[in-house]
Amino acid sequence: MTIVILLIIAIIVLFGVRNIRMQFITRPVFSFFKKVLPPLSSTEKEAMEAGDVWWEGELFRGKPNWNTLHSYGKPTLSAEEKDFIDNQVQTALTMIDDFDIVHNRKDLPPELWQYFKEQGFFALIIPKKYGGREFSAYANSTIVAKIATRSVSAAVTVMVPNSLGPGELLTHYGTQEQKERWLPSLAVGKDIPCFALTGPEAGSDAGAIPDLGIVCRREFEGEETLGLSLTWNKRYITLAPVATVLGLAFQMRDPDGLLGEIKNLGITCALIPTDHQGVEIGRRHNPLMMGFMNGTTSGEDVFIPLDWIIGGPQFAGKGWRMLVECLSAGRGISLPALATASGHVATKTTTAYSYVRQQFGMPIGHFEGVQEAMARIIANTYQLEAARRLTTQGIDLKVKPSVVTAIAKYHMTELGRDVLEDAMDIQSGKGIQLGPKNYLGHAYMATPISITVEGANILTRSLMIFGQGATRCHPYVLAEMEAAAMEDETSALDRFDSLLLGHIGYAIGNALRSLGNALTGSRFASAPVSGPTQQYYRDMTRISSSLAIMTDVSMLIMGGDLKRKEMLSARMGDVLSQLYLASATLKLFEDNGRQQDDLPAVHYVMTERLHLAAKALNDAIHNFPSKIAAVLLRVLIFPLGNHFSAPSDKLAIDLVTGMLKPGPARDRITFLCSDVEDDQSGIAEVEQAFLAKYAAKELYKKLKKAQRSGHIKSKLPMLELFDVALAKDIITEAEHKQLVEADELRLAAINVNDFETL
After folding, report:
1. Same domain flag for 500 and 637
2. Predicted TM-score (pTM) of this structure
3. Which among 79, 233, 340, 480 has most CB atoms closer than 10 A?
4. From CA 315, how far away is CA 305, in angstroms rounded?
5. What is the structure's pLDDT at 44?
6. Count of CB atoms within 10 A of residue 650's CB?
7. 615 domain residue, yes or no
8. Is residue 758 a part of any domain in this protein?
């Protein structure tokens, strides 16, 4: 007891007496911290500082405040946005023939281009005072997603002017003169924008662009003008072949000191008319046969005045931060919208198709093997819709959540790929035979485009999510890094000392919370709700604490080397991502009014999210470079083992069973697939067959019963079966007519297009 008391006194003195603490703890730790601090390039620093920390910050800190999540409110459409979707968007859908766009025109038809321009489809984000729609991020996402259910090519054409590009950059950073010059013409489609960032030598590492702008003086419009000599070579630029105004990112240099002492000003963005002398719009690319415009642009020694820099000369060298902030918003809207559209189409058509398509005398949706894949489709679609809503909601709250949008971009495009692959497996020949009736093929072909653009998925996962999240979202690390960079060492030590005490308390709290929740099954963790979802909140708090303590241990042991441990960083980023996706799922359930028929999807999704988060933690511990630290982490995180399992067969069967019939739950996660009278995409066709066959389900049961009893032979062709049943008075004339009509719709739905020649 005496030893214990002395030890406690020693700890109190060591930490409580400032001079002693500074000498024996703060100074050594500060010295160690500066030594292991990862070096940051200027572009990394700007990316780190750009954007805001939002809900991901709560998830990263070990004890999320779930009431904060629920306080964000429910995303809604304004009356104006709803009217636009119900009218202009629905009209646009009737004008889309995706097979014609992709296989014949290789472009949108002129009348669709004109309609998009006239009705403001290219002006969704432009302020109203400049003639734009000024819609919310949620409305923007919904419009793009609805169009994407019919045509990826048309959706990409609409989404690009409303994503990263001149419209967004001008709205946020443009001078008043630039806004008045360009925004009105962009709003009415008189000007078509593109933005040239990517080049042969700079893809995901966009900060390494080699394109140059050299400050110089030349004659421009009859006067000597201070400007830039630009040389660039860009590729993969969407809308470039038809653009009238080019947004250009380049490295700006001032070798002669015409602007000041700084020679290398950094990445800068300018706006250039494509008919300006020297601007070259090259030939088109062919992005997986899709019909949207994509191509190259280049220029050599093209002179522009300095006031063509977006934001004016005062924004010289600030282009990278501008791009990161705008890209973080765009990544949370456009590509996630395409992925969500894929989920809605896959769920609506696959549940319908698997009900009308029969093999071995029964609908294929009744086979457990099919149900396993179909459960993933439905659950992933619920997840996609949930993440779409939460992410756009954050953007509409006027935050720029760069980590959240990186999570959304990576995981939602991957989930979109997953649902399409499962849908293709189930619909088989219906999915692979291209034609006007095929509603899966083009989206399936285009999926890799979303995977690779706006930051390749592999690097987004391995470098960005945890790389930025660990620093931005941690309550102490970024402040400690700032303290380490202070020139006044005394002030730096004082600042670091106050942060260190908080950091130690934070780490101890997370370690104890992680261990306590692991030993008690999280039974004593707080939750904002009761009922069937309560335990999910508790388990997420446990995993959040585990991620927090593992992050601290990783930074302590690996320091700057952590960012080079990409596989380990990716796994830890996966934990944060799964927590975010799970949060979105629980919020959607609450926003929908806790509908009981949503619970099968919620249970499946949440079981999967927790399973994947725990698996990522377990795999990270298993691959941790320090075996001693790995043992400690396993004791704190999984003292009784990892018991978070994948969704059970029963969960899958329950989920699919509830979706193989018309109902509100199915409507809620397929609403983006709007039915229009002259729909030529095949979606309405398979849906009508599904509804007709479901309406006749009692008649089919009557026929089955007659076959089992021997009144009618088994394995008769459908029409013959109906005729025999009518002749034997098993069904009435009206029932016979209903069955024949349903079977005609069924045959039309399962048939595919064929051609005399290709």
Report:
1. yes
2. 0.94
3. 340
4. 14
5. 59
6. 9
7. yes
8. no
User: Which residue do the tokens 């949930």 mark?
Assistant: 386
Q: Which residues have a Cβ under 8 Å from the Cβ of 94 and sit 6 or more positions away?
A: 676, 677, 678, 679
pLDDT computed for residue 674 by the predictor: 75
The pLDDT of 289-294, averaged and rounded, is 96
Confidence of residue 192 (pLDDT cuts 50, 70, 90): very high
Residues 500 and 625 in one domain: yes
- Provide the number of structural domains found in the chain: 4
Amino acid type, 129: K
Displacement of CA 72 from its chain's centroid (Å):
19
Q: Are residues 381 and 351 in the same domain?
A: yes
What pLDDT score does 474 carry? 86
Residues 6+ apart with CB under 8 A from 351: 365, 374, 378, 656, 659, 660, 666, 690
Residue 9 belongs to what domain range?
1-35
Query: For the residues of 17-82, what is the DSSP string, one character each?
Result: SHHHHIIIIIHHHHHHHHHHPPP--HHHHHHHHSSB--HHHHHHTSS--HHHHHHT------HHHH
For 220-233, how does the pLDDT look when each residue is reduced to its tens digit (9 = 90+)? Answer: 999 999 999 999 99
Is 454 a known active-site residue?
yes
Task: Measure the CA–CA gap between 490 and 209, rounded to whole angstroms.
Answer: 40
Span of 18-22, 134-138, 222-226, 320-324 with lowest mean pLDDT? 18-22
Mean pLDDT of 138-154: 97
Tokens of residue 28, six digits: 């050594």
Tell me 398's DSSP state: T
Q: Which helix (H) or strand (E) holds 588?
A: helix 566-591
Q: Domain check: are 410 and 483 in the same one?
A: no
Are residues 478 and 451 both part of a single domain?
no
**Average pLDDT for residues 88-109, to the nearest whole number?**
96
> Angle formed by the axes of helices 152-159 and 441-452, to 10°?
40
Residues 480 and 449 in one domain: no
Say yes or no to pLDDT of 433 above 80: yes
**Band of pLDDT at residue 637, cut at 50, 70 and 90:** very high
Question: How much is the pLDDT for 463?
Answer: 85
In a domain, 289, yes or no: no
The yes-or-no verdict on residue 646 having pLDDT over 60 is: yes
Burial class, 295, CB count within 10 angstroms (exposed 0-12 / middle 13-18 / buried 19+): buried
306 confidence band (pLDDT: 50, 70, 90): very high
Q: What angle do CA 549, 552, 554 make, to 5 degrees?
A: 110
Among the listed residues 454, 480, 685, 735, the single catalytic one is 454
Residue 374 inside a domain? The answer is yes
State the average pLDDT over residues 354-360: 94
Contact (CB, 8 A) for 30 and 496? yes
Instruction: Enter the DSSP assignment of 700.
Output: H
Bridge partners, 212 (sequence order): 231, 251
Same domain, 593 and 501: yes
Q: Let me know whether 551 and 494 are in one domain.
A: yes
